[in-house]
Design the sequence.
């Protein structure tokens, strides 16, 4: 096909609007077309006079609509018509208040309103349909950990971490738990293809049931589901399939980021109903979310073993079952990163296996947090955590190391010490861990006053401190701005947007964001609120671009203090009889700081 | 088939009232009617459908040419006869026949050539009358009609004196004598007689729009003309402005005495400038001894007037309905122009029909 | 239409924001306006809509009072004071 060079007359009717036309001009010229940009404010007859001499293929007028503008534009079209110039020339109007109907009403051939991309205009000029997906919004999954070497930048801390990791692995030798046995059974004997074909292995079910608490046992032996849940009916499943087919056919994913390198944006789902989760996920994808994080109910972490079935319930968190995860995976766009959290409970290791087999991209593991603030026995979670990390390596799942114990009151430096130990453990075992400091208004700063003036300094200090210790990816969470949000949607969206902008300015790799009803506790969050914060974050990214946010001098001082304190904590841990003893002794968060070693799975660790 | 256009000078000047009255009388006389429009008016959008609201009441047997999407929002039941394949923002323009009476939305083509094509397509269904409903801010495609009804009123200009002056100017433009020129195609040219021989120079297609356009035409004419005064004619390009004509007259007016100047039609003249300015330019031309003509006959048949106007109340920041005294506009404007001036709501549909259609 | 009951206490307008499941922006517009009409509002308009894949984020508005109208809340507050 021969390339057709078009001639386009660009006409600004008022000077303010010139910029849009100049952008269009650049796009058209880059595409090889000839353009002629007229000076602003020419009367219609002069424009028509120039048309008569230049014979353009298209005339594009830009005008902010206001009083009397309809008359001017209508007159321009009339003059072009009366002059016999409409046969060969297409008349187009663009501007803030232009809608296609309005353009047609004034007799134009086309109208471009706000939000029109340069690509769209070029496509119009070339007479081809505009496909937004092909023109920039095309998204690809990104490996957040790519490019990080996991080198220790702080020699002394690096040495301490190496020693602690060696001690942990020595301590762990020969220890086993029901969680590890299940994860290995799931790894070796559960075939995901047979599962998809609906084949239930009696052998697996029975062997698995023996490693479970009564509720999962009842499921695997008698097919009974958890009393709080119900199975989706065949009719509901058929409707879901129908809904998904229709929605997917018109899906196009957008981007939240404005410039290259701005963090990937994750949202968290877990309404209790996988169907509603899917509906929310599709909305978030359409509004630019790069990744989604599966939230499971807290009782799932306290029960030995998983149940199965396509299950729904009306409580916070969506139950992890092979069926639920499979449906969610099936609903995702190819570009969406999917994280299934393993981090805190009695099923940590097996969750990693299940996530890996069902196609997740990421998981979440933290021994310190899980045993200090999520109710799992420190010894149990240490052995299960190591197994989980090994499985993450096997299934090639990077994982973040969350530090939510800060929300209980543990100071950042202690939470970070725990996070760094698990990160170093992962590093030793060949995994790809991701640091997850909180961007939050935590109890520590509420008491200590580090956020009296601003939310920037202390969060910037955290990133600076971690960066000076290790070369590892950073994913602030979860969600960013936690405890700064109120129930007001504007305030909530705004604080999320600003925290996201701060994260972008600090060049982190990813963020998790809340919805604008995050602070509301009276019921599940809703889709419209998810759109709010995605829009707000996109606007924050748009606003700052490559621009930076300057912290005050406090940030560096706090970062230095934090590094010193982390080193001090790690020294104590290294001197403790074992990592588990250190957890019990409160070295990584004490009872006074709101950290309580958990009791879930106590006494279940045995020697082989 | 007689093609009548209805043009409004502003919102609320009664264009729809006039159109409905004409239709009513046509139905009473059992005439076969066809209707189309120049694009569509944005005055009455339905914010539920995002489409124009149906306004015109039509009866069975009426032929309409409208955009496809308008069929759905019309309460009249319309059977599609053909698709003209002319595109518009509301879908392609189709020709249909009203099967069950009701209200219709007419959104026709918005370019002159397309109105011409639709007119030809409609003629094949042999209607007695084709009504072309105008659109606000658009007049150029009215060049395709046989006669025009102008709807104006207090909503255009509240001051009756100024409104009368503007309407008079419009009427005078339409009164320019019609004469069929002999020399040129639509782009026009200049011709003069030397003895028995006519010299003719066609225009290359340029427009006569700017002061420079007028000056350069004047220069060329002067360069080519012999020294002694000759008889001649200029067939002007389709679109001219008063500005360009003035500069032509200033530079070459004295050489063009007794010459005939052909404008394309009154519609293109209306686009030249404000009506008063154009009328003034024509008068100036005549006073200099030039003879203006139009090459297409397009009479203004009737002026309908509406005394209604919205008055802005700064106190409540809202508009209130106001009316000029009944009969005032008919009197004021009627005294200035030769054609009938009427308030359709007072005089009624029959009178409008008689003045418009004459039969 | 004169606003009655609690509606009369709305200062000027009622905005409704939600996410509508629909297959196009056009459908979203239509549903949004229909939603307000079905709630009994007459003076309604779509303030904002953005469509993407599963549906449309909308903000749709019903004016209870346009400037210049008779605001019932003025009278009610006066009445309250007199009674109090």
Sequence:
């Amino acid at each position: 096909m021969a390339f057709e060079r078009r001639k386009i007359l660009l006409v600004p009717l008022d000077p303010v609007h010139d910029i849009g036309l100049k952008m269009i001009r650049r796009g058209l010229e880059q595409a090889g077309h000839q353009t002629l940009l007229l000076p602003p404010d020419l009367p219609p007859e002069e424009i028509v006079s120039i048309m008569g001499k230049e014979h353009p293929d298209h005339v594009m007028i830009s005008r902010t609509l206001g009083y009397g503008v309809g008359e001017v534009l209508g007159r321009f079209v009339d003059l072009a018509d009366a002059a016999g110039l409409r046969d060969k020339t297409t008349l187009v109007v663009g501007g803030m208040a232009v809608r296609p109907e309005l353009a047609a009403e004034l007799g134009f051939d086309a109208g471009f309103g706000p939000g029109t991309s340069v690509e769209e205009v070029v496509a119009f000029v070339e007479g081809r349909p505009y496909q937004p997906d092909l023109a920039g919004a095309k998204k690809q999954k990104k490996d957040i950990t790519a490019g990080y070497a996991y080198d220790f930048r702080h020699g002394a801390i690096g040495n301490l971490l190496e020693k602690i990791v060696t001690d942990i692995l020595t301590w762990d030798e020969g220890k086993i738990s029901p969680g590890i046995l299940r994860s290995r059974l799931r790894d070796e004997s559960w075939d995901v293809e047979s599962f998809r074909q609906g084949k239930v292995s009696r052998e697996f079910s029975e062997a698995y049931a023996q490693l479970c608490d009564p509720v999962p046992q009842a499921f695997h032996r008698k097919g009974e589901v958890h009393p709080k849940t119900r199975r989706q009916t065949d009719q509901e499943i058929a409707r879901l399939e129908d809904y998904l087919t229709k929605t997917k056919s018109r899906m196009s994913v957008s981007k939240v980021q404005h410039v290259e390198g701005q963090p990937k944006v994750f949202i968290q789902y877990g309404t209790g109903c996988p169907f509603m989760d899917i509906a929310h996920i599709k909305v978030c994808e359409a509004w630019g979310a790069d990744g989604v994080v599966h939230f499971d109910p807290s009782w799932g972490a306290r029960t030995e073993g998983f149940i199965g079935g396509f299950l729904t319930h009306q409580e916070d968190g969506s139950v992890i079952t092979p069926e639920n995860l499979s449906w969610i995976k099936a609903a995702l766009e190819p570009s969406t990163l999917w994280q299934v959290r393993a981090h805190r409970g009695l099923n940590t290791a097996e969750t990693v296996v299940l996530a890996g087999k069902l196609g997740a991209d990421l998981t979440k593991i933290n021994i310190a947090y899980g045993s200090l603030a999520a109710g799992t026995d420190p010894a149990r979670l240490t052995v299960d955590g190591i197994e989980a990390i090994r499985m993450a390596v096997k299934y090639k799942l990077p994982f973040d190391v969350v530090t939510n114990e800060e929300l209980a009151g543990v100071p950042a430096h202690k939470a970070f010490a725990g996070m760094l130990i698990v990160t170093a453990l992962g590093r030793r075992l060949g995994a790809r861990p991701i640091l997850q400091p909180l961007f939050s208004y935590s109890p520590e700063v509420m008491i200590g006053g580090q956020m009296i003036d601003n939310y920037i300094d202390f969060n910037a200090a955290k990133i600076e401190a971690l960066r000076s210790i290790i070369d590892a990816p950073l994913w602030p969470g979860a969600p960013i701005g936690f405890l700064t949000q109120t129930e007001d949607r504007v305030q909530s969206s705004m604080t999320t947007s600003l925290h996201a902008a701060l994260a972008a300015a600090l060049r982190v790799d990813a963020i998790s964001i809340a919805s604008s009803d995050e602070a509301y506790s009276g019921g599940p969050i809703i889709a419209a609120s998810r759109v709010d914060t995605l829009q707000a974050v996109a606007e924050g990214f748009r606003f700052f671009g490559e621009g930076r946010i300057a912290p005050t001098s406090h940030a560096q001082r706090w970062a230095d203090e934090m590094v010193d304190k982390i080193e001090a904590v790690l020294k104590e841990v290294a001197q403790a009889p074992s990592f588990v003893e250190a957890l019990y002794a409160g070295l990584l968060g004490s009872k006074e700081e709101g950290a309580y070693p958990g009791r879930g799975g106590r006494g279940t660790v045995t020697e082989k | 088939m007689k093609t009548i256009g209805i043009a409004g000078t502003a919102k609320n000047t009664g264009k729809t009232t006039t159109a409905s009255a004409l239709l009513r009388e046509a139905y009473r006389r059992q005439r076969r009617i066809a209707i189309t429009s120049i694009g569509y008016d944005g005055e009455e959008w339905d914010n539920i459908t995002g489409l124009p609201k149906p306004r015109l009441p039509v009866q069975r047997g009426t032929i309409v040419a409208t955009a496809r999407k308008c069929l759905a929002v019309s309460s009249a039941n319309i059977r599609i006869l053909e698709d003209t394949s002319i595109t518009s923002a509301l879908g392609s323009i189709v020709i249909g026949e009203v099967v069950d009476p009701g209200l219709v939305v007419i959104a026709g083509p918005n370019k002159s050539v397309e109105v011409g094509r639709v007119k030809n397509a409609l003629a094949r269904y042999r209607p007695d009358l084709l009504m072309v409903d105008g659109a606000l801010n658009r007049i150029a495609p009215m060049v395709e009609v046989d006669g025009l009804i102008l709807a104006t009123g207090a909503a255009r200009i509240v001051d009756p004196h100024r409104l009368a002056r503007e309407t008079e100017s419009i009427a005078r433009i339409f009164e320019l004598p019609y004469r069929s020129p002999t020399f040129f195609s639509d782009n026009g040219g200049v011709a003069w007689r030397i003895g028995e021989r006519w010299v003719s120079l066609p225009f290359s297609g340029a427009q006569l729009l700017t002061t420079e356009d007028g000056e350069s035409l004047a220069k060329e004419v002067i360069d080519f003309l012999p020294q002694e005064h000759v008889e001649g004619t200029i067939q002007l390009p389709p679109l001219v402005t008063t500005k360009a004509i003035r500069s032509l007259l200033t530079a070459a007016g004295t050489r063009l005495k007794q010459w005939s100047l052909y404008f394309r039609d009154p519609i293109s003249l209306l686009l030249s400038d404000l009506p008063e300015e154009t009328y003034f330019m024509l008068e100036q031309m005549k006073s200099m001894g030039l003879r203006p003509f139009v090459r297409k006959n397009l009479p203004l048949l009737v002026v309908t007037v509406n005394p209604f106007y919205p008055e802005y109340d700064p106190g409540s920041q809202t508009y209130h309905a106001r009316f000029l005294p009944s009969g005032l506009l008919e009197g004021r404007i009627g005294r200035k122009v030769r054609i009938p001036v009427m308030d359709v709501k007072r005089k009624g549909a029959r009178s409008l029909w008689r003045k418009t259609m004459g039969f | 239409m004169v606003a009655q009951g609690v509606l009369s206490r709305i200062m000027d307008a009622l905005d409704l924001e939600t996410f509508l499941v629909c297959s196009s922006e056009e459908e979203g517009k239509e549903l949004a306006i229909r939603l307000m009409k079905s709630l009994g509002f007459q003076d309604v308009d779509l303030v904002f809509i953005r469509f993407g894949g599963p549906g449309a984020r909308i903000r749709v508005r019903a004016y209870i009072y346009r400037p210049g109208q008779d605001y019932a809340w003025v009278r009610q507050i006066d009445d309250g004071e007199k009674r109090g």
